[in-house]
Write a structure and sequence with these properties.
Structural class: alpha/beta
Radius of gyration: 19 Å
Largest sheet: 6 strands, parallel
Number of helices: 14
Distance between the termini: 32 Å
Number of strands: 11
Strand content: 5-15%
Shape: globular
């Protein structure tokens, strides 16, 4: 098994049976070795700096009805909101003052007629913060909208494919959504020059290890600059609200696999991981993750962005807890890197 890990580190590739073997392995020593190798590779590229991104949860309004998501359009228990342009710019101003140089706008999929406002919003952020990277995670849009957002100043786009198995994807989403369209959107984003991220929920209902291997092989071929992976966490007001929570261990194994596969990728240690495990953030970093995203959203709306139950929204998960985050990182030998993390640099303020 250690030889498999050595091969992955050297060749950045395994066959499907190799990936499955790493996911199934019950030898704690082997899993520890996997994480150690991933950490070494990440440290070689980025040093001991962990990138921070200022997360702005733009809206919990969504036109989709995904079966797992707490902000699905059918959930009438959610108090809906859309931040104003002024609120977003105030959040960015706060973040810029703290030192953030990347802003991530995340939200549900707004109605199509909101596209002009989104484009103007991105242009405003670019105008006021020309030295900052702008990342969007706002779902599926027509190609022309992606193009206009890119022209307005967006640098990166995160769109998790969720499952590369069409049957599994269909069980998690309403009939009007399709894996083909999700993959088409990802292809458009690459064509338009975005730095693109994709990823999955680990332990989502009906997901098998074979599905995860399919996802690994898709991501390997797609070659994203960002890889967003977190455990499935149920939300009680959804059709899948009584399903089991995903695995922190399996999530961290995937961080390590992708770090060995893509040494320069941006891999967040996600809030979902920190929600299901008290030390989830540090677990992720020790497995090869190199990004954390403290919340810059107005405090009054954070509790309404209810993607899943128990979401961590305070302390080191929040921008105002940045000192606490730095202390947490110091305990494992890391520190905050305030840089944008552009991909044409190998060592970035390490």
């Amino acid at each position: 098994m250690r030889e498999l890990i050595d091969i992955l580190r050297e060749q950045r590739h395994l066959d499907s049976s190799g990936y499955k073997a790493l996911l199934e392995c019950d030898d704690e020593g082997v899993v520890t070795y996997l994480h150690e190798q991933a950490r070494e590779v990440g440290d070689e590229v980025f040093g001991k700096g962990i990138f921070v991104r200022g997360l702005v949860e733009l809206t919990n309004v969504c036109r989709n009805d995904c079966l797992y998501c707490g902000i699905r359009k059918s959930n009438t228990a959610v108090e809906r909101y859309v931040l104003t342009t002024e609120q977003v710019l105030q959040s960015c101003q706060q973040g810029y003052g703290l030192g953030f140089r990347t802003f991530v706008l995340q939200g549900g999929e707004l109605p199509r007629d909101k596209a002009p406002w989104l484009i103007e919003l991105v242009a405003a952020i670019r105008h006021y913060y020309p030295d900052c990277a702008i990342t969007l995670s706002l779902g599926e849009w027509p190609r022309e909208v992606y193009a206009a957002l890119r022209k307005a100043g967006a640098d990166r786009y995160l769109l998790r494919h969720e499952s590369h198995n069409a049957e599994h994807y269909a069980r998690l989403h309403p009939a009007e959504m399709s894996l083909d369209n999700r993959l088409q959107c990802l292809a458009w984003l690459k064509e338009l020059g975005y730095q693109v991220g994709t990823g999955i929920m680990v332990g989502s209902p009906w997901q098998s290890l074979n599905h995860i291997v399919e996802d690994i092989e898709f991501i390997e071929g797609f070659k994203p600059e960002m890889i967003g992976i977190g455990p499935f966490v149920p939300q009680h007001d959804t059709p899948l609200g009584k399903c089991a929570t995903g695995s922190a261990d399996l999530t961290c194994r995937l961080y390590s696999i992708f770090r060995l596969m893509f040494p320069s990728a941006l891999i967040p240690s996600t809030t979902a991981l920190n929600t299901i495990a008290a030390d989830g953030r540090t677990m992720g970093i020790m497995a090869g993750a190199n990004v954390v995203m403290p919340n810059l959203s107005p405090t009054a709306v954070r509790a309404n962005y209810t993607l899943y139950d128990g979401k961590a929204i305070s302390n080191a998960e929040a921008a105002e807890g940045i000192a606490q985050l730095n202390k947490q990182l110091a305990t494992i030998g890391y520190h905050i890197n305030w840089g944008r993390g552009d991909f044409n640099q190998r060592i970035i303020n390490s």
